Amino acid sequence: MTPRYRKNRNPILEQTQMPQSALSGKPQLAPLVRRIPLAIAALTLAVAGLTACGGDSKPVNAPPSASSSGAPTESASPAPSESSSPALAFTAPLTGLPIEQPVNKRPLTVMINNLKPARPQSGLSHADMVWEILAEGGITRLVGFFQSNESSDPIGPIRSIRPYLIELGQIYGGVLVHAGASNDALAILQRNKKIPDLDEINNAGAYFYRDKSRKAPHNLYSTAEKLRAGAEHRKIETNVPLPQLIFDSNPDLSGAAPASEIGIKFELSDYKVSYTYDASASKYKRSINGQPHVDKNNNEQLTATNLVVIATKHKTYDSYGRLEIDLNGGGEALVFQQGRVISCTWEHSQGDAVRLMKDGKELPMIPGVTYFHVVPNSKPISSHVTYQ
After folding, report:
1. Measured between alpha carbons, how far is residue 118 from residues 17, 124, 216 in Å?
2. Largest CB tally within 10 Å, which of 244, 245, 291, 329?
């Protein structure tokens, strides 16, 4: 996108300089006095005196004044007003929202603990995009992508990574942020040193910290500032080509069914996610197990503009319950926007983002935060999602 800048110019008010004749006294007025009646001469002198004193000029918004004929004279035109908040020239890659400066840096892709003792988590209200996806044993992991709305607030609790979570981060060019890994995930990271990752256990411990008010292992945190410093220290390339997402502020939802109350079920009863559409804010408010899901930093309820549910193949491959989750095969999907739902499909090609398709065309996201939810396709998607 070619940057567009606009300079704000404040009007400059120039004071009228006094004519020299007004300062030179009677010698310039004497000829006039000899030719006109004394009363008119006195009036002329009075006007000259006002000019010599530099009297205030009439405000530009003053009402029209009357001329000697009684007809109103033309008032000065109002000065053009400048917008107090000029249109922003750039958009955030993951949200499509306007921003002041271009964002080309990799997103921070943070593995966030979603066990009950880890709630409420910190920092999710500043994420551009969030994925909720199963880990072993039926628990879910939250993966927050932080790019355009970073703050100095804590992010966490931070937990370990899995092979498909590595892949998820790579889809969007992210710097992986985690604390340790499953054996298979660790083998991938050790084998491919070019994968950008910050691991509290193995390579970047100095850029994480423990919160003493919480019990381990649910007390590991960092901040965007610390993580960016860690990426710089590890010489992780910051500016790389990222997939381009499409956005539309007014998508065609004419054929979409109403859906202002949504429930999403993963596997365990402790992970019942629900959303309520707030039409006044054009956002979905997130709850978990019937209670508002809030950000510990500000006690604000988590919200999203777009909700996506994708169904895909899940396979348990060891006695511990570790999973393989297919993020490439495509399949059934649901998109929730503006209190309505669209049934569609999802697809993913190497080097590209996950795309949502309907009748051969990609569905755009509405500018804002998007929450993705990945559920098993062993059952129909309707068994995981309810709405009304």
Report:
1. 72, 13, 10
2. 245
Q: For 256-268, what is the HEC assignment?
A: CEECCEEEEECCC
How far, in Å, CA of 111 to CA of 105, rounded? 19
Is residue 166 within 8 Å of residue 190, measured between CB atoms?
no
Nearest to 386 by CA among 256, 260, 270, 291: 260
Rg of the chain in Å (alpha carbons): 33
Q: In this structure, which amino acid lies at residue 135? A: A
pTM: 0.78
Tokens 């604000």 sit on residue: 300
Which pLDDT score, from 0 to 100, does residue 58 have?
35
Taking alpha carbons only, the member of 160, 176, 157 closest to residue 216 is 157
Judged against a pLDDT cut of 60, whether residue 159 lies above it is answered with: yes
Angle at 274 between CA 282 and CA 348, to 5 degrees: 80
Q: Position of tokens 């603990």? A: 113
